[in-house]
Design a protein that fits this description.
Layout lengths: L2 H9 L23 H6 L17 H5 L8 E2 L2 H10 L3 E6 L4 H11 L2 H10 L1 E6 L4 H15 L6 E5 L5 E5 L13 H14 L1 H18 L10 H13 L16 H14 L2 H16 L13 E2 L7 E2 L2 E2 H18 L2 H17 L10 E2 L2 E2 L2 E2 L7 H8 L1 H10 L28 H7 L4 H20 L6 E2 L2 E2 H17 L3 H17 L8 E5 L2 E5 L2 H18 L2 H18 L32 H16 L2 H13 L1 H6 L5 H11 L3 E6 L5 H12 L5 E6 L5 H5 L14 E6 L2 E2 L6 H7 L4
């Protein structure tokens, strides 16, 4: 149905099939004016800048000195488009996007291309991380029109925001079957003047389709859908290298978390095998930063060796959760160690002074992708000494010519990416070296290499603080803190949560989206509420203070009031009353991170059990039913929601410990519960003295300590077993051996 514009452009030989991307160079950031200089600039940015110079987003600021007359998304741009009778050139990307840098260098910094864009369009630049609502809509357009998507995203719109063309990366000139900007723009301009009726008709068709296809498909769900998801994931599983599909490979930690929980309930050993193989292989590969820690975005090969080098905050958070649950489930220290390594990176490099977490680090530095992370053999020899260097060169698969190829020429660069084929302790056996000796050697060498690497030019850090991604990282820290019994992680989670609570809310107490350079702003979306409530819940489950539970309940209610679909159930991505989009989207698909609806469903299940309020569980049930058609069709694409479904079907438990929080017997019970893998449970401490928790959850008043000892009440579906003061008996009541 979208063939109209595409047939026209194909007929005119503007659009060519079989697109192939080519490499480019990294954007070199222009120096930007300081605050006082900004105040002197005219509204359009003046002679040296465009309107983006007044924005806070690092991505938009990267484009502030482009000769393209960029506008931020807003009424001014669309009013100007209507006034000048021009279509909109919408470009969507993000600060650490490699191909966004390439397209900027080739086209948006080029005066010839800029002149064409300025003469024929009103250009708008959007940071997808600040405005995921805009990105969701127009990415769906690109996928519907072309069968693919990605960033940079290029969309042409009418002044009414209706799309009539979409694509991704375009070079300046056409090459290798890829249409160029110098060919595309003039042809579209001719079509806008001479065949506008066809373009407008196409835009109406596309808009109608997107508005219709985003509506949820209601139905019913049962436990069988979880088994189908396991089957689909197991069919895609790579038994040799772990992960799913050949390449590229993404960590997809919510898939692994679901599989752990499915294994726990079904006792299906294959599910645990998938999880362990994947977590172990990822840690060995180049997708993990062996020197500075933290995970890169994804692997371009099947063995996790060659990554796309950007680092995203959300990947770190989700992977902490996956490794922490794997440690709980198996007791294997190697998983706990990876949790500590990831959090070392996050707390060292991705944490603001105020306690919030930055968004991402770029793949590129000095104009080359991955350069910051690569080493030559001579560098090892110069810094580590010949004997140590020769051994580590061998263990980490370095070569004289380099194991890292230039992306465009496919010629070895002399530089090496560090990766392991086996754990160091296994390699030690083969080399007849003691495990302790090789581990000590590597740790001392790693620290030295890290100090040397710190002196290099670093990749760009996207230092904006996003509410949703911070909520996810808060949840990860709180879970790590209680699983590893490390109070420092819980303290960091609280500091971040307090920062978001203080800084990223408006005068009415509603959430805002982004903080940067001392300013908060932008409308919050469903993910901001759902993910931050998740983080608050995990803090409560780690320290049991009433403050964070109250905040979670309040924001959860605000979320339901602003985002709930009163007609069909489920939650819209944008709040009621937002008017700058062509429609309100609803999403349940768990992509790079879980969807807001999936997270909200899990939150509602847990809040229902914590507060003995079945209304919350009913809302979670309605979310599932409103999206049942999509979930039943592709279960593997909704694994975080299926984790919530497993919680709902159970067995799931509510555990109340009545006792002095600081007493030894209470702490013993808590430690047993926090380290024991029983994912479908919620935990409350019933204090002996009066507290605000008793007024919040009146049912707790009946669960008292026996004979002055810490007493556990283990309940299933609001029916409690006889209380016990024996920690072993408490664990047995959870149905686990």
């Amino acid at each position: 149905m979208f063939s109209g514009i595409w047939k026209i452009l194909l007929a005119e030989k503007v659009i060519k099939p079989n697109i192939t991307l080519k490499s480019g160079t990294l954007l070199i950031l222009n120096s930007l004016p300081d605050l006082q200089e900004l105040k002197k600039l005219p509204a359009n940015g003046g002679d040296s800048f465009n309107r983006l110079v007044f924005e806070k987003s690092p991505y938009l600021l990267q484009h502030a000195a482009n000769p393209v007359n960029w506008y931020p998304w807003g009424d001014d741009a669309f009013q100007e488009a209507e006034k000048q009778d021009k279509p909109i050139f919408l470009a969507i990307g993000y600060a650490t996007c490699h191909w966004c840098h390439v397209m900027e260098k080739e086209s948006f910094e080029d005066q010839d291309v800029a002149n064409l864009i300025n003469d024929n369009f009103i250009p708008i630049k959007v940071d997808r991380e600040e405005r995921p609502d805009i990105d969701q809509i127009y990415m769906a357009v690109a996928q519907a029109m072309t069968g693919t998507g990605g960033w940079p995203l290029t969309v042409l719109l009418t002044p009414e925001k209706k799309p009539f063309f979409a694509g991704t990366y375009f070079p300046k000139h056409g090459r290798y079957g890829k249409t160029g900007m110098m060919e595309l723009i003039p042809q579209v301009s001719i079509l806008w003047r001479e065949k506008r009726d066809e373009l407008l008709q196409s835009a109406e068709q596309i808009t109608d389709h997107i508005q219709g296809s985003s509506q949820s498909q209601s139905g019913e769900l049962d436990r069988e859908v979880a088994r189908k998801a396991y089957q689909q994931l197991s069919e895609r599983f790579d038994p040799r290298q772990g992960g799913f599909n050949p390449a590229p490979k993404f960590p997809s930690p919510h898939n692994l978390i679901f599989l752990l929980r499915y294994w726990f309930q079904s006792k299906e050993p294959g599910a645990l095998e998938i999880v362990e193989k994947t977590l172990q292989k990822m840690r060995l590969g180049g997708i993990f930063d062996q020197v500075g820690y933290g995970y890169h975005r994804y692997s371009t090969d099947a063995a996790w060796r060659l990554p796309h080098f950007e680092k995203m905050l959300y990947d770190q958070g989700m992977l902490v959760l996956a490794y922490a649950e794997a440690y709980q489930a198996t007791g294997k220290e190697q998983y706990a160690q990876v949790v500590r390594e990831i959090l070392t990176y996050v707390l060292r490099d991705m944490t603001s002074q105020e306690g919030g977490f930055f968004s991402a680090e770029d793949a590129d530095s000095e104009g080359e992708e991955g350069l910051f992370y690569l080493w030559t053999k001579n560098e090892f020899r110069d810094h580590l000494g010949k004997d140590s260097a020769d051994l580590l060169v061998l263990l980490f698969n370095m070569t004289e010519e380099g194991n890292f190829e230039d992306e465009s020429t496919k010629i070895a660069t002399g530089r090496n990416l560090l990766y392991l084929k086996e754990p160091l302790k296994e390699l030690a056996k083969k080399k007849e070296i003691s495990e302790d000796e090789i581990l000590k050697l590597w740790e001392s060498s790693r620290q030295l290499l890290f100090e040397i690497r710190e002196k290099r030019i670093h990749p760009l850090k996207d230092d904006k603080i996003l509410t949703d991604w911070n909520g996810l990282m808060i949840a990860a820290l709180a879970v790590a803190g209680r699983v590893l019994n490390d109070q420092s992680y819980i303290t960091a989670a609280k500091k971040a949560a307090d920062f978001v609570w203080k800084t990223l809310r408006d005068e009415d107490g509603l959430l805002l989206k982004r903080f940067r350079s001392g300013e908060s702003g932008l409308p919050a979306h469903l993910d901001d509420y759902a993910f931050f409530v998740w983080g608050l819940l995990e803090i409560h489950q780690a320290d049991f203070g009433t403050k964070y539970l109250k905040r979670a309940l309040g924001l959860n209610q605000a979320m339901l009031e602003a985002f709930w679909d009163q007609e069909s159930g489920g939650l819209f991505f944008t709040a009621a009353g937002q008017t700058d989009l062509i429609h309100r989207n609803k999403e349940i698909y768990d992509g790079a991170i879980p969807s807001g609806n999936s997270v909200a469903a899990m939150n509602l299940m847990r809040l229902g059990r914590l507060t003995s309020n079945p209304d919350y569980e009913e809302k979670a049930f309605q979310i599932g039913n409103s999206f049942a058609g999509q979930i039943n069709m592709v279960p593997q694409g909704h694994t975080h929601f299926l984790s919530a479904l497993l919680f709902a079907y159970g067995p799931s438990y509510e555990v109340v410990i009545s006792g002095d929080r600081n007493a030894d017997d209470t702490r013993e019970m808590l430690n047993r519960l926090q380290t024991h893998y029983s994912p479908n449970k919620v935990l409350l401490i019933r204090p002996q003295e009066d507290s605000s928790l008793l007024s919040l959850i009146p049912a707790l008043q009946y669960q008292e300590a026996h004979e002055g000892k810490a007493t556990a009440y283990v309940c299933q579906n609001f029916q409690c077993s006889a209380p016990t003061t024996d920690p072993d008996e408490m664990i047995k009541l959870l149905g686990n051996k």
